Amino acid sequence: MTVNTLAIIGTGIMGMGIAQIAAQAGIQVLLFDAKAGAAEQGRQSLQTMLEKLAAKGKFTDEQLQSTLTNLTVIEDLTQIVKAELVIEAIIENLEIKQQLFKQLESIVSAETILATNTSSLAVTTIASDCAHPERVAGFHFFNPVPLMKIVEVIPGISTRASVVETLKELAKRMGHLGVVAKDTPGFIVNHGGRAYGTEALKILGEGVASFEDIDRILREGAGFRMGPFELLDLTGIDVSHPVMESIYNQFYHEDRYRPHPLTRQMLMGKKLGRKVGEGFYQYKDGQKLTANTSKSSLFEASFSKTRSDAAITSVWIGADLAEDKQQLVDYLNYKDVTIDDNDKPNPDSLVLLAIYGEDTTNAAIRYQVNPKQAVAIDMLTDLSKHRTLMPSIVTQDNFVAQAYALFGKSSDEGSNVAVDATLITESTGFVAQRVIAMVINLGCDIAMQGIASSEDIDNAVKLGLGYPYGPISWGNELGSQRILLILERIYGLTGDQRYRPSLWLQRRAKLGISLFTQQSHY
Length: 522
Known about the structure:
Layout: E1 5-9, H1 13-24, E2 28-32, H2 38-55, H3 61-69, E3 71-73, E4 85-88, H4 94-105, E5 113-116, H5 123-126, E6 136-141, E7 150-155, H6 161-173, E8 177-180, H7 189-192, H8 194-205, H9 211-221, H10 228-235, H11 237-250, H12 261-268, E9 282-284, E10 287-289, H13 295-302, E11 315-319, H14 322-334, E12 350-354, H15 360-367, E13 374-377, E14 386-391, H16 397-407, E15 420-423, H17 432-448, H18 454-465, H19 471-478, H20 480-494, H21 503-511
Parallel strand pairs: 1-2, 1-4, 2-3, 4-5, 5-6, 7-8, 11-12, 12-13, 14-15
Antiparallel strand pairs: 6-7, 9-10, 13-14
Helix pairs in contact: 8-10, 8-17, 17-19, 17-20
């Protein structure tokens, strides 16, 4: 079916965003809202915004007028009868959505597709009271719709294949990528995004680092557009925490999706984020206020007299991967630092451990070195952008100061880019290793469950969440064997089921093949 006319029910931010891209694609859009005057208000707000964009040269006058001509406000719901597609974008309430769909069925023809923009409710359940559930599907956009070039197409248990194809083609026509997902909790994006925030919250809860430092490591070192706590503040705890709990409960308390009590406490205390001026951060006039209270800032202050000129006798390197050791050797040679190449480190050598999935104490025992001399460094992230250092609980201050002198922000003077280091307390897997490995592992598990193709998972998560890579391609980029090593060690040390490696990841890592590889069929 070719969609020439569609109706939008609900003219809030999401509804008007969908209306905008549809009208720009030359589709006639009927706007309806149960609240009197809301549809006209939505159209006027969109017109004002588009006129401002046109004034900046984003649209020609002809494109502006064409788009506005394609938007028609209707006051009577029966006027949707000529639409080939109706998209519902109302409140996330199952009973209200079910009532609306039954009402829509009494108006439209038997061939009209009924789509829901739900982000958290089961499409099958929404369609369960419909006379024709085969023409009902999910069509889930992301805010802001014109900029987020992804839409999830979700067939319910009875949805016709032709409906899915029509919605995919329509998404393409509107400039978006349509990815098909099974009707499971969170679909692809909200499901795949669980690892980022929940693991960061667990790291914070363990006292590994402050929320500022966790944000800094993941933003500057790992390349995420926003730190997880900045993102939680932006989205709003009142939005994020219920989604965490909903997905956790819908998957029958699967450990990978376990929420953290802190966000429940913040919800109860009404520290909801940017919208109320306080969440993890504090805000004034919508702008984040910076407080110089992070662990690394306190460390830098306490070692201000010693970190930059700490006497470094020599450095002994223990590395899990040969390429990591070579990178550190090259860096130390560049810094003109003596390398201790003895089988066992000298008593006055800084012991530098490039490890995966362990804390410094366990690594020191494995390498049979003195933990009082040991500082671990995370080699998973780009050292040219940020460094994470992790002493053991007994590492002597002079060795911590030496490590900071080598890798802190004053260490690369003359460089065009300021590079900082963050000091964390002991953690199985640092900060970035844990979060990235969990993101990749969850993406692999979604692929194994057959919720979507590995390519669609990759594209949906990257476009829908703004990650540097999709989870599947990120695993290939960093090396699936390395990600598997991180997870196996964390799982072995903690016994926490949330870290168990996905079988999809395990098989492909052990075979040394791409994480995109599908099962062969005979």
